[in-house]
Every structure is written in C-alpha cells, then in structure tokens.
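Final report, section 2: Outcomes. Of the targets proposed, Small ribosomal subunit protein uS4 is the one most frequently requested by collaborating groups, and we therefore present its record in full.
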Amino acid sequence: MARYTGPKARINRRLNTLIYETAGAARALDRRPTPPGMHVRGRRPSNYGLALMEKQKIKHYYGLGERQLRRYFDAVSHKPGNTGELLLLMCERRLDNVVRRVGFTKTRPQARQGIAHGHFRVNGVKVTKPSYILRPGDIVEVRGRENLKNLYRGVIANASPDALDWVTFDSENLKATILGLPGASDISLPVDANSVVEFLSR
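The predicted structure is given below as tokens.
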C-alpha cells in the first residue's frame, strides 16, 4: 500500500477525493467524478463500506500501509482528545507530508522518493525514512549538493505551497523550520476520521 503503483486516477474516482495530485489523475476526477466500473453507480455502500472508504483515503493520501496505520492508531488511542483528529495530526507531522506541503515537491509520492534517495536532512542529519515524525524545533533542508538545490529551486518556482502556521519556509535557503504542532485546521485531508476510529476499534 505504501508503494501503490496502479492507476492513480481510479483511486481518485473511487474515493471521490483528490488523493493523488498528478495532473492526469486530477483531470480524470474533474471529468468523470463517478466511481470506475460498470455496475457501481446505482449501488449504495453500507456503513462498513463507507468506513472502509474513509480508511482507504487516509492510507492512499499519506502513503501508509495497514500495519503502519494501526501503529499510529495504537499510539494515539490512549491519549486524551479526539482519537481521529490525533491520528490525522500525527500523519500531518510525517516528513514526506511536510516536504510536500511547504512546496519542495508537487506530490507526496515525489516527496517520498526524494527522501528515500537521501535528498533531505533533518537537523543536519540525512534522513531516508518518509515516515519520520517531525517535532517543534526541527529544521528540514535540502542537502548541500548543488544539483539537488537547483532541482528543488526549479520545483519551488512552479509550486503552489500550502500556508502553514506551524511551519516557516525559507525558499531562498531551501529550509523549513517546525515552529509547533499542527492543529485541527491544519489537516489537509477531508475525511471522516471518527468512522475510521470505529473501524479500527473493531
């Protein structure tokens, strides 16, 4: 699941959400917002089916496998507060998500690829795990190689980054600084997280 390589447009149409942000997948959702397949248009999904779809949104959007999602759920289920919200906030703090949202890349799969290839450092140390959870005070920057800096400057020049209150981004020095923890308004995925919590609690 963390390395889904199938047609991204089908996932966008099936979940009726812009999960994959490539140009072709986005156009497909705009052009044909109905689910793929011949016999699905008249069918109404059950409550179980709806909850499963919401869970699939989280897995595809953040690039999580089933075991990884359940690990995150176990980590937040005993904390005070809304468990669904806490689950999404943990996903928002992933390194690949922050790299995408500040504008280093155009999509999350691109962010995961760049991190896995060692293009980024956190607090001066090369990190190759896209699932690395960032904390307040962490500094994310492109490694010092000139070819990498030129690559990401080109991407940033054509990117449309999200405005984040909890992260500052220095596009000149290719550096993002984590100021604090994200809040509920910073969650970028429209999803019914409470139904996912009920699904995972079974």
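The CA atoms of residues 141 and 173 lie 8 Å apart.
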